[in-house]
Design goal:
The complex is a heterodimer of chains A (161) and B (502). Chain A is mainly alpha-helical and 161 residues long. Chain A contains 6 helices and 2 strands; from the N terminus they run βααβαααα. In chain A, helix 4 packs antiparallel against helix 5. Chain B has one domain. Classes of the chains: A mainly alpha (161), B mainly alpha (502). Chains A and B meet through helix 1, helix 2, helix 4, helix 5 and helix 6 of A and helix 8, helix 9, helix 18, helix 19 and helix 20 of B.
Chain lengths: 161, 502
């Protein structure tokens, strides 16, 4: 009987994908090394180490691909089986949004909603606890950093924080 | 005599009120992150790396070192009481430590873990004091070829010990080297892989990379799982082990200390591998190995001593050669570099106050840890009850802020989030971040030494083999690269392979 979570030459084989990404990266590094000039063995250029590291990357990625094809590997879906995969996804979305908002809105206006979202979305904390934590923690940190340690924090378009 | 004068000088530095404060903060935070599962010393040190900027180099490095050896102490508490390792080096303590706690012997388990750690930590410091200056005087004779080969060996050992397939670990190491080379070429000043972005001219910062790969990725992975905790609620009494406990533990503590210290010195080795090796050794030497896994105190005493001795031993290659043997030491190297210092053979002679001050602070830190971990154990038990749904958002906010403050640059926040996402997918696909981070730190040094040795030898590659130290390192590296191809050695590697990142 075959194991549906372990496949060989299939598109879902996660090991194969990992190897292919490694191979592509290796190819890019080789190309970058060549572009930067290799120099000679007596006087190696800026691209010398990059070029040979790229070759090594391709070799190791090749070994991963060969092993994925001959021994098989878990499917991409099985890597996310029996876990709450939506939680990291939500967290990533929150972090990306925060990164974009940080410069635009400033530290306080971006970190308070971030905290509130994280407290409510990962494993919901009750509102009566989430709101005070979301407001007090960033405000306290802002006060310590900006007022006490005189560290410049982004204040955004509205100049708050 | 010289050593005693130096130690006295070191205590003069370490006993300054500000350094005592930083030492206490370091060991306190170390115990805290050791106790809390999900955050390890790597995440904590990367988080606090920017904080070291605010004080003197001594203070910053004393604090960072305190976090490392403090986490080794704290990790045992969670292993014994909750059966979840607080950090990777305490994984093996869960086996017998939690069984002892279930049998109502949590007190002696915690006690022997703390006393064993203290003995091992003290021994490691004495050995560090005696070995480091001698090794440093030898290391002055090292040329670029030796440095290059030693770094290659360090990377290969780490990839050999990393969990999962070796090609994956080696691929990670190569990616780390490439990431480390981003920015201006140190010899020709030519920009490399900067894609025209001014922010990349100086390269990618260590702080956002490590915080992303270890801090953010760790939280992302933990949010996937509903962490269950089974805390031993019975009162913890009799922290002082009985005479029988001491008799049973004396041998394991001594053996674990020596084994851990030497494994800690090896490049790529460290606290994790030494705790497993000590457990295996004690089980093999025991007349009643069947007690192991059912609450044998030797299974707690040996590994806990080993991981603390290894934490001390790991300082030797960093302080004497300037080569970090593991990721934690790579971060410590980052702290040195931030302050414009270069650890290596000349550090002890050129900056004796710093070296001996750090060593002396570790003595003081060990005493602080004994007090923190025995009379104050109740406080850490309470802390274990802090809900993760509150803790994780706080960690995220601290990491974001930590990264921003390290360079006053929003670009670093983008870098950290990117590496957090990359780190998450890497772990999901079975790629360990530890070789990448160590290679990221060693990459520029490796390149520099490789190019220097090629220029000096006029392109003669035999220079790496003909020089004895360099040749031995390369031969060892080749043996380790070939080893997984042999079935018997492959099995052994799988037995010792560990997740360094936790």
């Amino acid at each position: 009987m075959t194991n549906p979570t372990n496949v060989k030459l299939r598109l879902g084989n996660s090991e194969l994908w990992g190897g292919l990404i490694g191979l592509a990266l290796g190819g890019f590094v080789i190309w970058s090394g060549l572009k930067l000039k290799l120099g000679t063995i007596n006087d190696p250029g800026s691209g010398y180490v990059l070029f040979y590291t790229g070759i090594l990357m391709c070799v190791f990625a090749g070994a991963i691909i060969v092993s994925a094809i001959t021994e098989g590997g878990p499917t991409l879906a099985s890597r996310w089986e029996n876990v709450r995969w939506s939680k990291p996804l939500v967290l990533i979305a929150c972090l990306v949004a925060f990164a974009f908002a940080l410069e635009l809105l400033g530290f306080l206006l971006s970190s308070i909603p971030l905290m509130l979202l994280l407290l409510r979305l990962i494993d919901p904390v009750r509102w009566t606890l989430a709101i005070p934590i979301a407001v007090l923690v960033p405000s306290g940190m802002w006060w310590v950093l900006k007022r006490l340690l005189l560290i410049q924090l982004p204040s955004g378009l509205f100049g708050i924080g | 005599m010289d050593t005693l004068v130096n130690v006295a000088h070191g205590f003069g530095v370490a006993l300054l009120p500000v350094n005592l404060l930083y030492c206490f903060i370091g060991v306190f935070i170390g115990t805290l992150v050791g106790v809390l599962p999900g955050i390890g010393p790597i995440s904590a040190m990367s988080l606090l790396l920017p904080v070291t900027l605010s004080g003197t180099p001594e203070s910053g490095i004393i604090m960072m070192a305190g976090i490392y050896y403090g986490s080794m102490y704290g990790g045992s508490t969670t292993s014994i009481l909750v059966n979840i390792p607080g950090e990777a080096a305490s994984v093996v303590t869960c086996i017998d430590g939690h069984q002892m706690a279930k049998q109502g012997r949590a007190g002696p388990a915690l006690g022997i873990a703390a006393f064993g750690s203290f003995v091992a930590g003290t021994f490691a410091l004495v050995a560090l004091m005696l070995v480091a200056p001698k090794l440093a005087s030898l290391a002055i004779a090292f040329g670029p070829a030796e440095y290059f080969s030693l770094m290659v060996l360090g990377l290969v050992v780490l990839t050999f010990l990393t969990q999962g397939s070796m090609p994956k670990a080696l691929l990670m190491a190569c990616i780390g080297v490439v990431l480390g080379l981003i920015g201006l070429d140190s010899i020709t000043a030519q920009p490399r892989l900067t894609f025209g972005r001014m922010e990349l001219i100086d390269g990618i910062g260590l702080v956002p990379v490590v915080m992303g790969l270890f801090g953010v990725a760790e939280v992302l992975l933990n949010t996937e799982l509903a962490i269950k905790r089974d805390i031993i609620n019975t009162g913890i009494t009799n922290l002082l082990p009985s005479t029988e406990d001491w008799k049973a533990s004396a041998g394991p503590v001594g053996r674990g200390t020596i084994l851990g210290f030497f494994l800690g010195i090896l490049p790529g080795g460290g606290a994790v591998i030494s705790s497993f090796a000590s457990y295996a050794l004690e089980k093999r030497l025991s007349k009643t190995p069947e007690r192991f896994g059912h609450g044998a105190i030797e299974g707690v005493a040996g590994p806990e001593s080993a991981n603390n001795a290894a934490a001390g031993g790991a300082f030797i290659p960093l302080m004497t050669l300037g080569i970090p043997p593991n990721v934690v030491m790579a971060l410590l190297l980052g702290a040195f570099v931030i302050h414009g210092l270069q650890p290596g053979p000349l550090l002890i002679t050129q900056n004796p106050g710093l070296f001996w001050g750090i060593v002396a602070s570790m003595y003081i830190g060990n005493v602080m840890l004994l007090i923190l971990n025995l009379p104050m154990i109740g406080m850490w038990v309470q802390l274990l009850k802090l809900p993760y749904n509150i803790l994780f958002p706080l960690i995220i906010l601290f990491t974001m802020l930590g990264v921003y403050c390290s360079g006053n640059n929003v670009f670093d926040v983008y870098v950290m989030i990117t590496f957090g996402i990359i780190g998450y997918f890497m772990r999901k696909l079975g790629y360990e971040p530890a070789p990448l981070v160590l290679a990221f730190v060693l990459g520029p040094m490796m390149e520099n030494n490789l190019r220097k040795s090629l220029i000096l030898s006029q392109g003669d590659l035999w220079t790496f083999v003909q020089r004895p130290i360099s040749g031995v390192c390369l031969v060892l590296a080749v043996v380790l690269l070939i080893a997984p191809l042999l079935p018997s050695l492959r099995k052994k590697r799988e037995l010792v392979a560990l997740d360094e990142g936790a």
